[in-house]
Specification:
The chain is an alpha/beta fold. Helix content is 52%, strand content 12%. The protein has three domains: 3-87, Winged helix-like DNA-binding domain superfamily/Winged helix DNA-binding domain (Arc Repressor Mutant, subunit A, Orthogonal Bundle); 95-163, Corynebacterium glutamicum thioredoxin-dependent arsenate reductase, N-terminal domain (Helicase, Ruva Protein, domain 3); 165-297, Response regulator (Rossmann fold, 3-Layer(aba) Sandwich).
Length: 297
């Protein structure tokens, strides 16, 4: 979105009823709603909801999917990220002790002989809390917390390994972990395969990857898989052989024995697609050079 379009959409969303409608769509289990059920949920007349929905349709913020005599409405995919930011969505899942206990039990079995149950549960709960502090993760919070905790435990295990694995480990860090660092990690993972292990983190992580980043990577055949923005934690820095920062200042702690690089890259957030492509190509060139260095070391 350009600045002018953004301002227009902000005015559209300034109406509290329209904001409530979009939040209903964001919070729905399958990302779509019908006017009748939405009217009941919001305590409004159907014509009122239809009127506001037409405004959102005209602005391109929602899509209409006919279904017989009725229709479903969902967020337009190209605007979903930005709409969530504009609304400042604050919906959170309440930590479910039963879920945390189940995830902890699963990971305790996985790390049996490496970490005790208390350590595993502490990492699961802490990972849950760290991710729940960000907007946009509530729907997938249990699975993301499990993945985040496992990644941190893997890093902790690597720190304790004697001798350490011969596979070099690279950590990419930017501010939101939703753009530059995700592009770099996806490209290095794609090119390096199992010859390098890649992690990412953000000093102030966003709720989800930018759709523009996914599109730019898809254009060159690089999958994003199940990646998601995650906070920067101590153990992933300690596990890295190379730490590459991108505009996050002094947020990354410095430990002896690691190689630190700072890549001066433009932030792709809010940029037109031609500029996102340019940033992607710059990152790809840097990643290829880094991989060549790692393989020749």
């Amino acid at each position: 979105m350009d600045v002018a379009t953004d301002a227009t959409r902000l005015r559209v969303l300034a109406d509290p009823t329209r904001a409530k409608i979009l939040k209903q769509i964001l919070e729905s289990p399958d990302g779509r709603v019908q006017v009748g059920s939405m009217a009941d949920e919001l305590g409004l007349r159907q014509p009122t909801v239809s009127h506001h929905m037409k405004t959102l349709l005209d602005e391109g913020l929602v899509e209409r999917i006919p279904d017989g005599r009725k229709a479903w409405y969902s967020l337009a995919p190209e605007h979903a990220d930005r709409v969530g930011e504009m609304l400042g969505q604050q919906v959170r899942s309440v930590p479910d002790d039963a879920v945390i206990e189940r995830v902890s039990a699963d990971l305790s079995e996985r790390y049996r002989g490496t970490f005790g149950k208390e350590t595993v549960e502490r990492y699961v709960r802490e990972s849950y809390d760290l991710l729940s502090a960000r907007p946009g993760t509530d729907r997938y919070l249990p699975s993301l917390a499990a993945q985040f905790a496992a990644d941190r435990l893997d890093a902790l295990a690597r720190n304790s390994a004697h001798p350490a694995s011969g596979v070099p480990e690279v950590l990419f860090v930017c501010v939101q972990n939703a753009g530059r660092s995700q592009m770099a990690s996806a490209i290095l993972r794609h090119l390096g395969g199992d010859r390098v292990h890649v992690r990412t983190a953000g000093s102030e992580p966003a709720g989800q990857l930018r759709s523009s980043i996914v599109t730019a990577l898809d254009e060159i055949g690089v999958p994003v898989a199940g990646e998601y923005p995650k906070p920067l934690t101590d153990e992933v820095v300690r596990a890295a052989d190379v730490v590459i920062t991108m505009g996050c200042g002094d947020a990354c702690p410095v430990y002896p024995g690691r190689r630190y690089l700072d890549w001066d890259l433009d932030d792709p957030v809010g940029k037109p697609h031609t500029q996102v492509r340019r940033i992607r190509d710059d990152i790809e060139a840097r990643v290829r050079s880094l991989l060549a260095e790692l393989e020749s070391a």
